[in-house]
Amino acid sequence: MTPLIQIKHKATEEVLYLVDAPNLLGADLSGAPLCGADLSRLNLSRANLDGADLQEADLAFSTLCNASLAGANLARAELRGTALNSADLTGADLSGANLYHTSLFVCDLTRAKLTGAKLTGADLTGAVLADADLSDVIFDGETRWPDDFDPTEHGAVEVS
Question: Does pLDDT of 6 surpass 90?
Answer without folding.
Answer: no
